[in-house]
Batch of 2 targets.
Target 1
Amino acid sequence: MSDPFDFDRPAALYAVMGNPVAHSCSPRIHQMFAEQFGLRIEYQKIQVDLGGFSQAVANFRGAGGCGLNITLPFKQEAFRLADECSPRAQLAEAVNTISFADDNKIVGDNTDGAGICRDIMFNLERPIAGRRILLLGAGGAVRGVLGPILEAHPELLVIANRTVDKAVELERHFSSARGVVGCGLDDLAGQQFDIVINGTSASVADAVPSIPSTVFASGALAYDMMYGDRPTAFIEWAARHGAGQAADGLGMLVEQAAESFAIWHDRTPQTGPVIAALRQGRSD
Ligand code: ATR
């Protein structure tokens, strides 16, 4: 492996793989983290064709690559490709962080759940323990974060999805935890939550899941796992319908990256200045 402090050798190589990947902030985030420790890394964006993922990982490793972040739509494929996976990646059945062991084995982890929990609990200072949490959606994004959210001991975690069966299936998968309920969006009538997390892909189409506007308990946090140059449709809708606080997924993005960085470099970077720099960049 390249020594990140040896300036006569090429910088250690990292990358994010996805499709699309052009929009990714990961190279900027990891460079800012590396600067905090005086580490020299090269972090690339690699657009991978559907069907070409395992070959792309092999090529990257062959070129001396040290670690990979995996984004849509390859997280499940990365899970299947990995030779070994952390317990949290096994629970999520998805991998967003790959390292390579000395014997070249592919080691998979998933830092998404840790990322959202850190953002909500530490950056936004909203406890999850003992609170009523609503997670909207039942796709890969939600599955990836369910385990760590449950480990934070909410009083109740309701997974509500447009297609009810998928939410019920997730409830079954995570049934060993107390207080997990899967239901449809219509079943939310009359219920209120302290934290409402949008894990659907509705924001991509500028849409909002059709949920009752009464879901927000007094002072509730509305959280969109998506982020963009401007507030998502869900964030705008929540602010108009009684949420006390609203946040997009930029903090989660930086926190999951910090957890990946710690896996690769054995150092925990400061996330606050990086979140602030990205938010500043968006408003310029
Ligand atoms: P991802 O990996 O981003 O989670 P996915 O696995 O395709 O993507 O899941 C998308 C999720 O967003 C699903 O829960 C989907 O609901 P369905 O299972 O009913 O399809 C949800 N979703 C997408 N658009 C939505 C919308 N306009 N309203 C409500 N839910 C929506």
Target 2
Amino acid sequence: MNRYTGIIEHYRERLPIAAGTRIIAMCEGNTPLIRLENIPALTGRQVEIYVKYEGLNPTGSFKDRGMTMAVTQAYAEGSRAIICASTGNTSASAAAYAARAGMTAFVLIPAGKIALGKLAQAMMQGAVVIQIKGNFDDGMRLVKEVAQAAPVTIVNSINPFRLQGQKTAAFEIIDQLGRAPDYHCLPVGNAGNISAYWIGYSEYAGKYAGSCNFCDGTCKFQQPAVVSTRPKLLGYQASGAAPFLRGAMVDDPETIATAIRIGRPQSWELAWNASRESGGWFDEFTDADILAAQKLLAEKEGIFCEPASAIAIAGALRDIANGKIAEQSVVVCTLTGHGLKDPDTAIKQSTKPLLQIDAELSQVKKAILDNIS
Ligand code: F0G
């Protein structure tokens, strides 16, 4: 049987997990790389834009790639409790993998500042949810301190197994495209993901990609390819939480994209290195830019991502328009989390009226005729 079970089995030879280890997995990874069909035409330039839809992971974000690794390793080392600070997605993922492993998850979240869906996930999946009167950066500091004194394993991205798992997204993109993209756009918060992509692209560069676990390598999606290039990594931040643009840590970060409401990124050096080595850059976007991109993607392509993820689209479009992204390029944007994570923000910014009518044919007909375009 060739059932896909997750990134650890699929990329086993490239991941530091010992043989015979109990794998805590739930088919994470193997997410679609969707080519945008309508938005590129709006740019007036010749570019191919793809989105890596990480919102389709088991808990609705890219965190699952790292969490399967971190929890598998923590369990193997005999740990029975994990802990993280989170803006929401890490806590949802930690709760899920801990539940599956039979471990306890402690999650520290900024009170009142995480999206509703993420809170529901952590609560439903049995995590001990600790709301703090502070932000993510305060939570991170406390987690590091408490892990010195209590028998808990940190599963934030300072745990190196997290980045190892997350690097597999770069492998998948190359396997799916048959080459590396020219530019890779992604949101930057705690800066683990941009660092993980760089590890992944670097490991695959110069090597053969595309060997298929499911067939003899002859299926049309898995043509072996020699990968000789790495993309420029473009890291985008919310203006109110943009330490990479300021060149220094930021106190009191603020943005509607609560997932990236972070002022003190833990992977500061790694991310700078990834950006510089790749020849990429950082840029910043207002909350209005972020929401506009989220809406554009939903309305023009039918793809619903959370606000933080949409910054990748905002960035790609700006850099295509200003020519920093060259014509004829292949661009990949990571959509880090599903739109359903944050229904409040989506509903608040929706401009379409919610119609309400009597349950009568004539009124349904009228509603159709009034609104047909
Ligand atoms: N997009 C989403 C949806 C996220 O949840 C995060 C981070 C990021 C982007 C940024 O990724 O931190 O690797 O630079 N969320 C973390 C959390 C901090 O706690 O869920 P990063």
